[in-house]
Design a protein that fits this description.
The complex is a heterodimer. By secondary structure, chain A is an all-alpha fold. Chain A has one domain. Chain A is globular, with a radius of gyration of 20 Å. Chain A is 82% helix and 0% strand. Chain B has one domain. Helix content of chain B is 83%, strand content 0%. The chains are: A mainly alpha, B mainly alpha.
Chain lengths: 233, 226
Amino acid sequence: MTGEAARAAGIVRRGIILSGLGLAGLAGVFVLALGFTPVEARQGLAQKIFYLHVPAAWAALLAFSLVGVASILYLWLKDPRLDRFAAASAEVGVVFSGVMLTTGPIWAKPIWGTWWTWDARLTLTLFVFFLFIGYLALRAAVHDAAERARFSAVVGILGLLLVPFIHLSVYLFRTLHPQPIVLKPSAPSLPPEMLTTLLVSTLVFTVLYAGFVTARYGLSLGDEAREESRDAA
Amino acid sequence: MPDSLRLALVIAGKDIRGELRSRTALQSALVFSALVLVVFNFARDPTALSATDLAPSVLWVTFALAAMVALNRAFTVERENSALDGLLLAPVPREALFLGKLLANLAFVGTVELVTLPLFVLFFNVSLGHALPGLLGVTALATIGFVAVGTIFSAMAVRTRFAELMLPVLLLPFMVPPLIAAVQVTSRLLADRPLSEMWGWLRLLALYDIVFVTLCMLAFTAVVDE
């Protein structure tokens, strides 16, 4: 095993440990959400999904923003580590967007009476998900590593700027057209148990994000090392 | 800068001349958008939905699809015989190169749109009346923005596998803000609404154009230069 491959394996191991901590924390979140927090008066048990949905959305948006930031820095510094990080962050972001987009409708069906509405926030997150997918599809379709890094950085930057535009247009669209009245979780302040659980869960999802990205980063580093040693042989 | 502009016009002129000589892409794009309009006509139930309610969305979906077909062609012609390498070796600033490609694409997409518009009036029985200047204006405003993004993406897409599929996957999310705005403005124009109701959308379109034309021009170097 070359030095580079050993280093990659070390990073993967660190990522797995961090992810393991995150998963243990997630089990804790389940316990907190089911045992510690009160049942919401109007929504009943359906509200419990809030403790997964909101942190997943947070992690997805964190992932997406960091892809954008890493893309800007890559075009400036041309450091392959930034590209590797952006790719890892995008992949993990897709997973968290997936969690967000599946837990949302499960909650919306009993509460709003529909799986999906074209609400501004829903539309925005759906397009963030599509942007991630497009980003990854592009990465998969470019063979040359340097070219792949440059192309995906451009998409990452343009995507970061697209988000405010989509937000603005779907927001204008919604406010000009009255929507059917939907029940919103309009709680001005959360009971302390709910707030604590939400904050713990957000922290746990951030740890999971860091763990997944670290492991994924190490894996692509290992792939690159293996390809290089194969080319050398 | 005037020098860059002149170079951009030379590059755009080259593309347009090439297109006028072969005419294959332009003809196919025109037939394509006519067909899309015809298909839409069968997709709606005329008793349930009046043509004027649906017309703005039909028009813009047709424009978007036609632009996609047109943009796919923009850099495939440069790939053949490695023409792009020749273009990159020429002492042309990358901004001018992008601008030239953008202008050629705008001419191409604009032509398709100009031919589609009368067909749309014919098939959907829309009376444009004095909405025509406004409609042309909003068409220009919306088209500039998404064609700018489409130009840079088509330069990337030709270097990938499944280029024809890659461009729509990348470009469609970027078409959403201009399309929403253009559909909103078009439906208000057709309904003879006052300008004040379209102002917000027009500003959004103008801002989109400024941001993305500038950004794509700056980022183009990263796409073509090794």
